[in-house]
Write a structure and sequence with these properties.
twelve-stranded antiparallel beta barrel, Porin, globular, 12% helix
Amino acid sequence: MGTALKRYITFLIFLTLTSTLPARAGQSVDLNRSGQPVYIESVPVDDERRKDSWVGQLGVGLNLSPDFLGAGAHEVTTAVDLRLSYKDTFFLENNKIGAVVTSRRFLRAGIIARLQDGRRDDLSRAGIAKSDALSDAVEIGVFAGTSFYKLFLSAEAYWGVGSVHGGMSMELEAGYLFELNSSFKLVPVIGMSIGSRDYLQAYYGVGADHPTYTAYHPSGGAYEVHAELSAEHRLAKNWLVKGSLRASKLKDNAFDSPFARESRAQLRAFLGLVWLF
């Protein structure tokens, strides 16, 4: 299949599927991401796929996630997992886009941007009014990733752009790729999310003049830790089944917020069919 046709088909599928996804209630964090980040995953791809400038995968399946970050109730929705890499330099991973600026044997680093979910107008949790809605935030930053054989480490730092927040956040992860045979892979991952005072105030803080809640001003620091296990089973040359299960725990500076006081433990899962191209 030609490169231009691949890109056109992928774009059409992506637009069609994402246009049918329901708006999420509450603030969520990278629900589709699992396993290695794309700027590490794209390096050791099959030689046959590397013949084209574009390399990627498109997954479609079901996603289990909390109604909002901090909710006790969960819901199942359709989900799309899209990862693209152009000449192993430019990449797209769901809500993230970036470019590799330096590539060495044990280090890949560059610039990155993402669209961070806010709190929607259709919040369903009792006590959260429409006036508490928060727009999606555009964030720009830098990343660094390294891999030692099967072990990988990654760090991403973001700064808010625009009126939603001017704070900083970091995502730290470490994982290991187990290739049990030629068609089955397991990737356990542990990670931590860190936010500055301004970042956490935007998503979890409450102002002094709030009509319902007592003022709350969270301190900066780690606000969520997680452990994840993802699995891939190759069905054919360009098709595989992918699943992931992620359990996370909100730290006090996030969980003590009125917007996230239902459940400290959070569970997310994804199961879908993936096309490799």
